[in-house]
Amino acid sequence: MPRSIWKGAISFGLVTIPVKVFGATEERDISFRQVHSSDGGRIRYQRVCEVCGEEVAFADIAKGYEAEDGRMAILEPDDFAGLPAAEGKTVDVQQFVDLAEIDPIYFDRTYLLAPEKAGLKPYVLLRRALADSGRAAVVKVALRNKESLALIRPVGEVLRLHTMLWPDELRDAEFAAPEAEVKVSDAEVAMAELLIDQLFGAFDPDAYTDDYREALTDVINAKLEGVARPQATVATEAGGQVVDLVAALKASVEAAKKRRDEAAAS
């Protein structure tokens, strides 16, 4: 069982639910160390001041904020005194909202909320009430010395906590919108919808794998064992610019239907 990263309580009305917070995800990406290519020795970095050129001990490193004009504000521990605390152990429910109203773009990190023994019944009560109503709880929570807006929602038998970005952390998306004069025909839309129908199905995350990570793992294992590296599979690159969009969509529909029929037969 993983270690909890935080202990506290959910508070709504006069109900308090003692909980533990666990990370809901774990990175599986392959990480590398920077090493000397000739002997494999690890490369170490020193903390060097760009002004005096001396190596700086970690205890002598302060927090500095550089303004756009180059001025530097060096903050001392006392400068943080009196600021709104980000160390509270109570998750206060701000309001309840319809889950469908929350745009996933706001979600940052996902955590699991596990009840303490004293909070089993109110935990189950909150989970069931949220599930039956299709709603979620908007809360403020202090994790890792940072106050975050967050959402508590029921998933199966547990409550998940999603920390959320603040509204001013979202970029205005208008710059990414296509030009207004671009138009598509009814025939193109109909063919695109037909392709969507052919590829539609229930989402099964276990059906997808990280092909790059698996291939890279094979290469690393071959290096460790001193054997020949596995033969790489070269992906076929897509063709050039599509001129006849309807024809391309029609070919895509036929290819998707063929793959679906082959999968069903097997």
Structure description:
The chain is 24% helix and 26% strand. By secondary structure, the chain is of the alpha+beta class. The chain has two domains: 6-27 and 84-169, Ku70, Chain: A, Domain 2; 178-265, no CATH class. The protein has a seven-stranded mixed barrel. The protein has a two-stranded antiparallel ribbon with strand order 3-4. Helix 2 packs parallel to helix 4 (245-265). The protein starts with 5 loop residues before the first strand and ends with a helix. The mean pLDDT is 86.
Write out key terms for the chains shown:
266 residues; alpha+beta; Ku70, Chain: A, Domain 2; 2 domains; 7-stranded mixed β-barrel; two-stranded antiparallel ribbon; 9 strands; 24% helix; 26% strand; extended
Short description:
With 266 residues, this protein is an alpha+beta fold.
What's the number of domains?
2
Largest beta sheet: what is the strand line-up? Answer: 1-2-6-9-8-7-5
Overall CATH class of the largest domain? Mainly Beta
What share of residues are in beta strands? 25-35%
Largest beta-sheet characterization: 7 strands, mixed, barrel
CATH topology of the largest domain: Ku70, Chain: A, Domain 2
CA-CA gap between termini: 38 Å
Order of helices and strands: EEEEEEHEEEHHH
CATH architecture of the largest domain: Beta Barrel
Number of strands: 9
Low-confidence stretches: none
Put simply, the count of helices is: 4
| Average residue pLDDT | 86
| Rg, nearest Å | 27 Å
Helix percent reads 10-25%
| Class derived from helix and strand content | alpha+beta
Which descriptor suits the 3D outline? extended
